Amino acid sequence: MATTSTTKAPARRGALLHRLDIKGAPYVFVAPFFVIFAAFSFYPLIYTSWISLHDVELATLDVMEWVAFDNYVELWGDSRFWNALQNTITIGVISTVPQLLMALGMAHLLNYRMRASLFFRVASLVPYATSVAAAALVFTMIFERDFGMINWALGSVGIDPVDWEADKWPAQVAISTIVIWRWTGYNALLYLAAMQAIPADRYEAASLDGASRWQQFTHVTVPGIRSTIVFTIVLSTIGATQLFGEPLIFGQGPNGVTGGADNQYQTLGLLLYEEGWKNYQMGRSATVAWAMFVLLVLVFVAQRLIRRLRSRTS
Amino acid sequence: MGTLGSLRGKVVASVAAVGALTLVVGCSSGDDSVTGGGEKDGKTVITMGLYGVMGIKETGLLERYEKENPDVEIKAEIAGDEQTYYTALQTRLAAGKGLKDIQGIEIGRAKEITETQADKFADFSGTPGTDHFLPWKESQISTGDGKVLGLGTDIGPMAVCYRKDYFEQAGLPTDRAEVAKLWEGDWKKYVEVGRTFKKGFKGDDVAYMDAASGLFNAMVYGYPEQYYDEQGELIYDTNPAVKEAWGLAADAAEDGLTAKLRQFQPGWDPGLANGTFATAVCPAWMLSHISEKAGAANKGKWDVAKAPKGANWGGSFLGVVEQSPVKEEAQKLVAWLTAPEQQAHIFKEIGNIPSSRTALESPDVKNAESAYFSDAPIGQIFGAAAQEIPDKQVLGRKDGTIKDTFSQGLTLIEQQGTGRDEAWKTTAERIEKAVG
Fold this sequence. Notes:
Number of helices of chain A: 14
Oligomer: heterodimer
Distance between the termini of chain B: 52 Å
Number of domains of chain B: 2
Shape of chain A: globular
Strand content of chain B: 5-15%
CATH class of the largest domain in chain B: Alpha Beta
Strand content of chain A: under 5%
Helix content of chain B: 40-55%
Structural class of chain B: alpha/beta
Distance between the termini of chain A: 67 Å
Order of helices and strands of chain A: HEEHHHHHHHHHHHHH
Number of helices of chain B: 19
CATH topology of the largest domain in chain B: D-Maltodextrin-Binding Protein, domain 2
CATH architecture of the largest domain in chain A: Orthogonal Bundle
CATH class of the largest domain in chain A: Mainly Alpha
Largest sheet of chain B: 10 strands, mixed
């Protein structure tokens, strides 16, 4: 009896360890991410929601006055919020749409056999590796009203100078240019990677069926990288919602915080910053942060709904 | 797709983890975690947080102090613009961490500091040899119960800087006494000269003044009360001084007398370098900025004339943090830095006007001339302007923010072509938001 139990116990323990290794190890491996996520994302998220229910000033964070949902009600009736929301959407559209289309075209070109393809691939990633601050600063100088390069070029062909900062649409276009410049190459490389995973025989089959280059592109390439396209759209949407550094630096100093004198390019990110770090009202700032979060959730839900509806109809 | 998805998940997770870890490590290794300096290798380390061009480091005063006191080491960190600096200071005061032993305080923030942060700054009322300041200067940084939270560095008496060559082209006098006579006693005359300038000047690339906000600031700071009354109530929307300044600045903007620039922002600097405007209302501390940005090519083209009315725009204090481990040494350093001799030294080097009465009366300051500004007797001009500053100046908690908001409201008129009433309404709404 005694001997059997002693031989069985280690075997059972071994089996248990083995089971733990199989079942438990993945959790152990992903645990660091979730621990850090809890500390740096989840906790701030909860704390932010707590702050948003109070009147708090930056300098005296320990003095909180409970106001329940007043901040949210106030934000709903605040024209600055709707203005910022509108700017975020328009800048988001005029930066994301051309950017992804250009990335698609660029990836298609990079996918051809050509000389120095590595050079072009690396070069297309360089803007992405540049810091936002450096890029935005350079573009600010290029778009400068009195001595900027673009106005100089326009002037040399007899076009009146454009006040890129003060006028609403030029300002939004200029900011979108910075975003497009930085992210097109990055998206192009994502597309390129997906394109190279498309089996060559599909193209062969298509050309046997008499498909032109363009038809191959629209009927083989684009469906083949569809999941990557969805992925970049999701990433760009999140990025566009949180747009902050580019308009801040483009506006220069205190003027950038408000997104221009007329808030003509103030995004939600900038409104958050203005409330928190110019007006020093942390409660209202946290409210904007939550509004942004809810907005993203709504976009996500809407996208799921559309997808479900579409799959049902087809 | 499933495996690819989970693989991507893992890659994302590990990248995020590495990123977050770097953040953690980054935080703990920075010197943000402790307040101020301390004793190191037998030396007393004093840290300072400053902004803009206060002249303390730039004129070599810190090195001199270190030489005279071999057991002291000073580390100064200087932020470019004051707003960024103050935001960081607020965060650090709230956290009680990352503060320097000595912190600069701008006049627009003085009231907020004395009202909400008084217990976090050390008291200077007992420090010997600090009775040489202008009477109004130290009262601005004192609390109701007599605690003095800092010592004054400079003040901002005003003059008008102008381009002699442009004035000549426009058929206006160029001699600084005659120019001052053109607008003597009234800012309205200054704007009137602008209209003459616009008519007389051939070519359209040069505006009369840089920004309407400069004129606005110069006017409001000439009165004892600006945005708040003595009880701390907001009065900006009824104060006739603010209304008058707004109206005249709007006149200048609507008549196209301004270059539509934003002061101290990058667009302003090339404007100085390329000479796109003929005048700028200049507090003393702005001279160093103009001479630096306008550059050697424009030396001797600028001159300084007396402003229509005296006013104080800007100026700073140095305070010592209460919890500093080297509080006494830091207070000693501040007293030395703000002593008359050192203030006179800073003035001679870069033109910041002393807040010390004794320094103002010293021959070094009185007889100073500026080579860059056509040998203008800046000691005399700004010294006289300092006498005209109202003895009583009421400060308010959000003075700095309200000033910035008004500047932006004038930009609305200048750049967006917004009507002045509409712009006023927008500005008032923004101020209500800002004062919360």
